[in-house]
Design goal:
761 residues, alpha/beta, Serine Threonine Protein Phosphatase 5, Tetratricopeptide repeat, Nucleotidyltransferase, domain 5, Rossmann fold, 33 helices, disordered N terminus
Length: 761
Amino acid sequence: MKNISMLLIITMLFLSSGCGMISERDRLLMSGRFGELQKHGEAEISRSGTAKTSVLLPLCIAYGNTKRYDRLFECCDRLENNIRKGDTCNMDWEETAKRSPLLGGVAKLGATIRSKQNCDVSPFPFILRAEAYIDLGQYEKATEEAKKAYNMSMTYRIWSMSALSLAYALQGNREEALRVADQLDAMSSPLGLASQKNVGLAKTYLALNEFQKASDVITDLSFPGESLFAWQKLPRLFMLNKCLMETGKIKEAKAGYESLLKMPQTRDNGEIYWMILYDRGRIAENEGNLKEAVDFYRRAIAIIEEQRSTINTETSKIGFIGDKQAVYSRLVFTLYADGQYGTAFEYVERAKSRALVDMLAAKQDFSVKTGDQQAIGDLLANNTAQEKELLVQDESSNKSQTRSITIKNREILMEQSPELASLVSVTSLGTAEIQTNIPKDEVLIEYYYADKDMLAFVLSAQGLKVFKLNSDTIADTIQQFRKLLISPGSNDYITLSRQLYSRLIQPFETSLSNLNLIIVPHGALHYLPFNALHDGNGCLIDRYSIRMLPSASVIKYLQAKKSSKPADILAFGNPDLGNPRHDLVYAQNEAIAVAKTRPQSKVFLGKDATETAFKKYGASFNYIHFATHGQFNADAPLKSAILLAKDAENDGMLTVDKLYSTKLETDLVTLSACETGMGKIANGDDIVGLTRGFLYAGSSSIVASLWKVDDLATADLMTWFYTNMKTLDKREALRQAQLQTKKKYDHPFYWASFQLTGNAK
């Protein structure tokens, strides 16, 4: 899929000029063969040893359309540098066209608009960067580049303003997006450029869900030479039919989508293809045809799961960003309505796997626990390269061959390192396999919700049951509940605690055949301390022993460790963070006391409690205990961290990102720190934080906190926890430690924050 950009208009202007001298470079550009154009431009530069503007500009365009963003930004920098040095085309456009039809078109456009026969390409690097940043979801950077292009030249303001309004819209700045769109709408559009202006407006209105406005401008769109540029039809027709559907013209939209699904170009454009399938599913669902809706949704998800990259490759082309998680949600609830409970549960698991994939897709330096590290690293690199090839909509490429290579790579990766494969591709277990991995004395409860509807899947040795719950305002209720919990001087939390119990547990409590629960949260439920829910007589912790899992499928990889290591503890307490205000006196005492519960333990305190020490000794101990500060980064969840002392070798920030490249074989990691159980909820789905990082690094279970804990109470709780583990499993040891703390400090603030994730034994 290629940009409907100013360069298309420029090329067509050249064609209409009557000049028949077309270079191979410009022929490739006009035919949309960007892969070949990239190779041609690189070869030209290699032969000549120089990179002139006439070569660089088409090459930068090629990089942008083949998603070689690293090369694109470097190319734009070189192009900008050339322009600063005067390498433009400041001459008669007819003379310019003899050297390059592309630049001749630019010169003619500038001459006509500005009544000056010169070629000003100075805004191009900034507009190309803006489009790339929009693709990458970096909207603030996109607005910066679009503003630079706007201030640099009046000639091409239609394009700079189109990029600026779209970036604002996708950033969520509705007011600014509409302000710029109004300015764009008021601009005159010479040389028949009204179509290009309307394209910019349509994208912005689609991004703002202003479908009627988008429809009004789309109906005026016409593309000169569209028969020559057939690949331009798909985004325009998708926008048109999307607007028809969202404005209630369902019959017309259905016919339009059916026509698009018959076009061969549609299947080659995964980003648009899955959205068409999704909308057809919605139409079928509204018609009451659930089986047809399920088929369309499943086909859409199949396309989504083929695309590991999270880059929205069509964002800058059509404005509208499809919510991939919405497809899973729609399918899950349609399957439930059709009575297909087991399949619905499996797609809930696939949705969770997809969310983690989206978060980690760009990361390649994973720790490999099985197989050959170098071989698997090479396989990952090759897999990524092949996936990039699939993103390039180049008519000359053999997509079927590339796709088969990618599938083979994933199969080998699954054989060599299944844990890693589960991170870089969408993998989940079937209902029957999950059921066989649930211990007979446990019941698994998995929640899934969208809007006002929630499903609770209750799975045990006896089978699967599904209950429909009300999730209206659930996130706000949990947020308010948490605010009350961190005020230990008040019992106001009890009312909301009972409300949440009646909504989340009571409807199916009679189906809980065991007192040992596995809870798999969803969305805001990740931040809910289930132990503290109150039924009117007592808290859940008084009757149930609870452990958490990020998804049901990970249960297969979290079996109890058979470690030959002694049952000793590596403890880090009160690291020196360079500021006395960060000192945790009781945390230091806690680390010492915890270590005393096991022989051959090792304790690092103050300046010695470094990230370097963790990396050196972490793999040698069965238990690792952190009594320090934690840092939750909502905007960059992979940068959430345990804070340790820094030294000459490491900065002391033990981040989630680093944990995915760490190899541990540890039975338990305890994060006795602030907000260590927090993480980023990826697109309303799975949570990515320190807990998931340590699970992947190799710990079979994690104990972490949901809020900033009390220093003294936590020291008591942790000492009891490790003492209890001498005779109890981890889950019951934590429960009993919390009950002991509850007797001393009744309010949940002091004891409910900690929860066990992973294996209970």
